[in-house]
Amino acid sequence: MNEFVYLDYNATTPVDERVVQAMLPYFQKFYANPGSAHLFGLAVKESLEQATAIMADYISAKSDEIIYTSGATEAVNLAIKGVTTSEDKSHIITVKTEHKAVLDACLHAERHENITYLNVRKDGLIDADELRNTINDETFLVCIMLVNNETGVIQPVQEIAKIAHQKGCLVFCDATQAVGKIPVNVKSLGIDLMAFSAHKFYGPKGIGGLYISSDIKHKMHAQIHGGGQQFNLRSGTLNVPGIIGMAKASEIALAEKNLNKQILELRNQLENELLDIADTKINGNIQHRIFNTSNICFAGVNAEQMILSLGEICVSSGSACNATTSRPSHVLKAMGMDDLDALSSIRFSLGKFTTPEEIELAVKKIKQTVTRLREN
After folding, report:
1. Which of 137, 163, 284, 307 could form a disulfide with 151 if both were Cys (CB 3.0 to 4.6 A apart)?
2. Is 173 among the residues known to form the active site?
């Protein structure tokens, strides 16, 4: 067993050894710049094109619809700012439970645009009728995440996209917690822009991407300028090892999709045992959520104290981007929770390396810790 019991896979995942092996040659043996015109550079470019074809096929896109970025945050910013600077209309709709990358990009856009932040129900799902009634003649973009990073709640993106398109709006989807875990087909979902990141599905950190439908690519404005790479939409020398690694991670995810059932069983075991503790409840819709995530409120227990007390049991009180703050989760607050319950909530996110023994150890330690903290 590892030194740590890691139950924070939504924050990041360990890089699969097969991904590492696929990347290694591109650090030293095939190190040429794919933008170079010589044979060495062209050979590396060919490897990149093959990797891009794999990644594009994984999300049912075309190769020229993938723009590589440093991760999902950059992809989010390119999507929102790239569309915003090209539109004559002035209204964007997003949701209060979005990741901070989306919310902060929208906050930046408030300098020139009107932003509506939709409410969610207590279970974390949006009201489709509220969306339909909020769209007006000035609305040009709807931003909606597929899987919430804190609760695992899955939004009805296909339905949302249909509503938005009927009103002439584009749809941007943050699928960072979905790609590599559940099937994501950009065509059947009906989305125009989609962000994703390799380190959420056993790939390396520092590489992600933005799907841009070929139908709207002409509307996009670059946020990083320079050498004109990637259709002039994101200049800079490409992260070759990272791209190779992300493509390999997507291949593995497709081949090992049967592991999702195993992870679900462990998640359910964890939940069933922890819900035996008095005054506990699951936050978010139980049916419409991803298989690896459980957000549980331990009433009367400060989550920050609990995380410190658990020591080698690695869990989270929310997004890794906000882990250093002691404020209640904006996601849970948007779901109608009061500050005390929000500050008493823990996110558990499991992965393919989670073992039954780790779950047993975590449950035992958590029960002991909750009892002790409630007595103090």
Report:
1. 284
2. no
